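Appendix B. One record, verbatim.
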Amino acid sequence: MINLLRFLLKHYFVILFLCYEAIAVSILVRDNPYQNTILANFAINFNGYLSSAYDDMDQYFYLKEKNEFLVRENEQLRNQLARKNALEKIIRPDSVISQYSYIAAKVINNSVSRPYNYIMLNKGMADSVKPEMAVLSADGVVGVVHRVSDHYAQVISLLNLKFKVSCKFRKNQYFGSLEWTGHNPAICYLRNIPLHLEVYAGDTIVTTGYGVFPEGFPVGTVSEVKMTSGNFYDIEVKLANDFRKLDYVYVVKDIHKTEKEELS
């Protein structure tokens, strides 16, 4: 209280001047429509600027929460679609049933610069995640679950020299094996595509469905085609996923996995 009084006494003339100025401006605006309009417009613009700045700040701080909400919503939509297809199969036996369900997970560790890269997820056995489950993102193929604990899963990344994916051209269904060469994290190579096929830059590459990945999920697009000395192309594929920005992914549960393994 004493400090406040000292401040007021020290700046008495400045405070008094500002009060008189405020009164003068108030009288001027009240009695002059033109000045009243200018001040009102200024107040509106200034208030809009503050509101916009506050909203931008609010959006930034709640961005993580909104991302998590969207991931959960996508997980629910994917599973609702799978259940819808299953119900349709009961009603219409000739329809194609969805054999997959999805578990949303967050990437908590990731590497792209090693020859054998792995990804860590925040979901494990407690969330029904098991080894050999496919992992996808909203953009495309990510990898396959390798090992799991109660609450975490280690995923073999597509950027791993030991990992290969069965892929095909969307336009003609011809398939080959996609593999990483250990260099550029944005590029893989599609092997075993014979020279008699017409292959062009921009062709879309998707999963075949022969392995753990559902059929038709995007992998990337052809970026360069080279002729080799053998009977096959050397096809460079630009990956749909940017592995340096992976955040949320979906672990794919194949409902028919056990049945297929028993037949194998």
